[in-house]
Design brief:
With 364 residues, the chain is α/β, with parallel strands linked by helices. It contains 10 helices and 13 strands.
């Protein structure tokens, strides 16, 4: 059965987030989706928190937390935070969830908040750093490989399935922002993922080809790829690597989408020293091959829940996936919410909806 929850107030959605094609390229790839605006930096550093709790959200008294690591199919060591309910019945096996973070983020931010909160609601959860990012391995760091990032979710299934507390037939996934697209891609080829929920989803490949129906011209695409090719020649000759990243400061000309991401990644609200948002320029063309909606119907008969904010500039991604997916599927629109609101605003995140979805579809 198809269920679609929409607010009646849709006329003004995303009205504050109109961007032209030039600004879009800064956001998505000759620019990077979910980073905000284009900035270049030649040096990045790994910073560490001094305390034992290094998350951007408070630690729960209801959940046990520990850091874990495991290798993916490509031999990259992934580092994750694991959350287990303190009152868990150790005599039986339980449902589990893998939570993926936004593009440019780390597990100590949004993904960790979702993982800890769902653990409070009875699930064993892990929130991992994507390959080449955060504390996970892969060199050079701060690049994005669609194959590796999608593989990371299957590696999470491998890891959870070896745990004696986990029912390997009841493993689901929550993908936030770009991880929404990655998790859909993973579920298409890994039937061990029994239920998929996305929140504020970005389709990284689709963002580069067409933004809400506004296609990137062949000329612009060639110019972008040619420029990146020249950068590769330069780096092969010893030049410093170049990165896209969210700017460190705002100006009067900063667009609304950049300001929205800035308010999370560059303020105490969501700042984390390992979430530089930097991504290497030369790795960006790989997303022109990444089209997770083309075969999203292959996930059926496993269920999909697509959660998006009513006012989110990215809402159309969830609507596109909903149209292409097969039953059972549900599009749940959160009234009044923007894209980044669903990263951490706990009064807007539909926790009850997420719990009900996984309770139903990961039942024993």
């Amino acid at each position: 059965m198809v269920t679609e929850n929409r607010s009646e107030q849709t006329a003004e959605r995303a009205s504050d987030f109109q961007v032209d094609r030039r600004n879009l390229l800064k956001l998505t790839g000759a620019g990077a989706a979910a980073l905000g605006a284009l900035s270049l930096t030649s040096q990045t550093a790994f910073a560490q928190y001094a305390g034992t709790w290094d998350k951007t959200f408070p630690q729960s008294d209801l959940v046990d937390h520990r850091k874990v690591s495991y290798a993916n199919r490509l031999g990259i060591n992934l580092v994750a935070d694991m959350y287990v309910p303190k009152n868990i019945d150790t005599a039986r096996r339980h449902p589990a969830l893998i939570v993926g973070h936004p593009y440019g983020g780390v597990k100590e931010q949004t993904a960790g908040l979702y993982a800890q909160t769902m653990a409070e609601r009875g699930f064993i959860t892990i929130a991992h750093d994507a390959s080449y990012n955060g504390e996970s391995g892969g060199q050079p760091h701060f690049i994005s490989s669609p194959e590796a990032v999608v593989e990371d979710f299957s590696a999470g299934v491998d890891f959870l399935g070896q745990n004696t507390l986990v029912d390997r037939n009841r493993i689901g996934v929550i993908g936030v922002c770009a991880s929404g697209g990655f998790s859909l891609a993973a579920a298409q080829i890994d039937p061990r993922l029994k239920a998929v929920a996305t929140v504020s989803m970005y389709d990284m490949g689709g963002a580069k080809w067409a933004w809400n129906g506004q296609a990137m011209s062949a000329k612009a695409r060639l110019e972008t790829l040619t420029g990146i090719g020249e950068q590769r020649w330069a780096e092969a000759g010893g030049a410093e690597k170049r990165y896209f990243a969210l700017p460190e400061t705002l100006t009067e000309d900063t667009d609304a989408i950049t300001r929205e991401f800035f308010d999370y990644y560059r303020t105490p609200r969501g700042r984390h020293p390992r979430a530089t948002t930097a991504m290497m320029v030369s790795g960006d063309p790989s997303y022109l091959h990444f089209r997770p909606f083309d075969h999203v119907d292959m996930i059926s008969p496993r269920p999909i829940l697509l959660v998006a904010g009513e006012r989110a500039h990215s809402r159309f991604f969830s609507e596109q996936a909903f149209e292409r997916a097969a039953d059972p599927k549900e599009l749940f629109i959160v009234p009044g919410a923007g894209h980044v609101d669903l990263y951490d605003k706990v009064d807007l995140i539909p926790w009850d909806k997420l719990q009900a979805f996984f309770d139903q579809h990961l039942s024993a």
